[in-house]
Design a protein that fits this description.
Blueprint lengths: L1 E4 L15 H20 L5 E5 L12 H4 L7 H12 L2 E3 H5 L9 E2 L11 E2 L2 E6 L6 E6 L11 E5 L1
Parallel strand pairs: 1-2
Antiparallel strand pairs: 2-6, 3-6, 4-5, 7-8
Helix pairs in contact: 1-3
């Protein structure tokens, strides 16, 4: 079991792109995937935490206006694709491929949480060999105390 807090690519720089996007996508994401793949040589892997990416358009409220913002750039989403293509499974999307308005993070601004204007940034991903063991994947959006809510994975 690997817990992770992926670096945020941060706000835009003078070139109108997230300041740490290159570090995030060309170093961190590459190294994290390599680490998980090395662990997987020994046994199946589960990793969970704040991956700081909304993978698909249904994973955030306003995809069109956020396309160039940290957490929803083409580059970050492509790196998440690479994780899935490497043999890991997004447990929530395996069970609920079309679920909308299921978020794990909301800005503290403008009452975003009460209006459910959010992003799904928190994940449980598993080795493909464990995917048949996924019984449920939950977003516990009723739990307050942070701008994120807990996520849960139940295996058989």
């Amino acid at each position: 079991l690997v817990t992770v807090y992926t670096p945020n690519a941060q706000n835009h720089d003078e070139n109108k792109r997230p300041k740490r996007l290159d570090y995030r996508t060309q170093e961190w994401d590459v190294d994290f995937l390599a680490h998980c793949q090395a662990l997987e040589l020994q046994k199946p892997v589960i990793f969970c935490g704040d991956l700081n990416v909304a993978h698909q358009e249904i994973d955030l409220t306003n995809p069109t206006s956020n396309k160039k913002n940290a957490g929803f750039t083409v580059e970050e989403r492509a790196r998440f694709d690479a994780i899935l293509e490497a043999g890991f499974v997004d447990s929530f999307r395996q069970l609920y491929p079309d679920a909308t308005e299921r978020y794990s993070w909301w800005s503290y601004r403008a009452g975003a949480r009460s209006r459910n204007i959010g992003w799904r940034l928190d994940y449980f991903c598993v080795s493909a060999t464990l995917s048949s063991q996924i019984q449920d994947a939950q977003i516990l959006d009723h739990v307050e105390g942070s701008d994120h809510c807990p996520v849960a994975l139940i295996l058989r």
